[in-house]
Design a protein that fits this description.
CoA_trans_fam_I; CoA-transferase; single chain; 253 residues; alpha/beta; Glutaconate Coenzyme A-transferase; three-stranded antiparallel beta sheet; CoA-transferase activity; NagB/RpiA_transferase-like
Length: 253
């Protein structure tokens, strides 16, 4: 156990790293600063077979600090080959979400009615093929009712209910693994595949999570805390992967 106090951002980094525990030799696709640090931490500790990119088209053999260039390049991963990896399930992506509902449907396209949206977001992009063909997790740096909604305004990433409605062709490889936020870690390990609180980050409460969630959340009778970063993990986060403390900008203390 760590003898050094970890920040909320560092708990989030460790929670994101755990997404790739036991993943084997697959491509990690983290989107966001904290997930990127988490994937690199996993590679340096318990997931050495994990494949990382430079964020563009190179497979890297070392683990540079966030914002720095890799010194070791293992291969080239052009866009066409990246799509092939997605379609064959050899990737675990951690995306963001403008909205997310209890079944794991994700919206990164628009806010409001499709005919006249109030806000334009990224667009659907690769979310449908991500969610139907390879494991998908989500990172939400600010847990709120604006993100965790009863019903998303548009489905970009496919949730458990819609995958079930579409049938075996959609459910065969569909898996939403984890949702990590600044308040805790969530999954869909319930009989009806609705979102469940799996762990709280230290300093948070169940009531705080419920208040910040716009739907009824499954909460076990006893909710553990997110695991404490080890001394070695904190050293890697602070001195090797993120010496500029970019994590603290995404999740302020």
């Amino acid at each position: 156990m760590s003898t050094v106090t970890a920040t909320r951002a560092e708990y989030c980094v460790v929670a994101c790293a755990e997404v790739w525990r036991g993943a084997g030799e697959i491509l990690a696709s983290p989107m966001g600063t904290v997930p990127t640090i988490g994937a690199r931490l996993a590679r340096l500790t318990f997931a050495p077979e994990l494949l990382l990119t430079d964020g563009e088209a190179l497979l890297v053999g070392d683990v540079p600090a966030v914002g720095e260039r890799a010194r070791v390049v293992e291969g080239w991963l052009p866009y066409r080959q990246h799509l092939a990896l997605v379609a064959t399930g050899r990737r675990h992506v951690m995306m963001g979400a403008g909205q997310l509902d209890r079944h794991g449907n994700q919206n990164i396209s628009c806010i409001g009615d499709w005919a006249r949206p109030a806000r334009q977001l990224l667009g659907v992009r690769g979310a449908p093929i991500n969610t139907l063909n390879n494991p998908t997790s989500y990172w939400v740096p600010k847990h709120s009712r604006r993100v965790f909604v009863e019903r998303v305004d548009m489905v970009s990433g496919v949730g458990y209910d819609r995958a079930a409605e579409a049938g075996p062709s959609a459910t065969r490889y569909h898996r939403i693994a984890d949702v990590v936020t600044n308040l805790g870690v969530f999954d869909f390990d319930t009989p009806d595949h609705t979102m469940r609180l799996r762990s709280l980050h230290p300093g948070g409460t169940v009531d705080q999570v419920r208040e910040a969630t716009g739907f009824s959340l499954a909460v076990p009778a006893a909710v553990p805390y997110t695991r404490v970063p080890t001394v070695e993990e904190l050293r890697l986060i602070r001195d090797v992967i993120d010496p500029k403390k970019l994590r603290e900008r995404e999740v302020p203390a």
